[in-house]
Amino acid sequence: MTSPQSVPEFCIRNLVVLVDGTAETRAAVAAAATVARWSHAGVHLLYFIQSRDYAMGVPQTYAGIVAELRHRHKAELIEIAASETLRGLEPRIHVERSEIAEGLGAFTRDNAIDLVVVGSAGKAGLVKWFEGSAAEDAFRNADTPVMVLGPNAVAAVSPQGFRRILCATDLSAGSRPAAAYAMALGGRCHASVTLLYVMPDDAKRSERRDVMIAGAASALRRWAALNGSSGAEQVVSEGVPAKVISELAADMKADLIVAGAKRMPALGITGAWATAYAVMREAHCPTVLVREP
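Request: output the structure for the sequence above.
Response:
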């Protein structure tokens, strides 16, 4: 029998806010400032100059366009760093010429980043296809947990930390890091943690429905015990995962959702792959997405 593991020590030493010039950056900066204050973390502000920012220029003007963009975004970061929101935190600023998917991993490793914070407008359809999503680029490619402030995330982060955490899991090996993160953060903040597993909607019509529910509930209890939090509440539900997760978070007044995120697929978009993005879009509180190994 496997013995319960102790909850790993939770520590945020440094965090970085991805700034992309959108209105949602303000919410990300505010959330990051609050987390930095209660965790005594260093703050970085980061802007990536991506190819789409200068793709319309002719080759001989690339250098001039990039230099102008670098100057403009450095000034923007300086202004944010001097804002009342970040007063006393003395954030460091960085402007990098790279795609987020390519440059974020190296940046987090080089600067010992423990948390990436980003705001998102929750783009959908053709707008998302053509313009991309900084938030999705971040949590699909970062080895570091990513906190996303989606378009409906109106709840502010408490100065004392999080109090009610909802952790959604599909009980796969890939979602174990998210569960461990939720438990560790819950221990650090003395928060209540709820583990949620959402069965497929068609389970309601299965003759084995009761057996499936009992099996899922048993698995959640084992997960809680293995992460040193046998007292965590366990909930088994049915339906469309993103909808169930966001509705339960609202009902329990959760101030944080933690969920796993799959790696960017090579081709196509599957429902399972899209769930993390849908959760972030619908959630009324910040969402921390922990990518699968």
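The chain has two domains: 14-149, 164-291.
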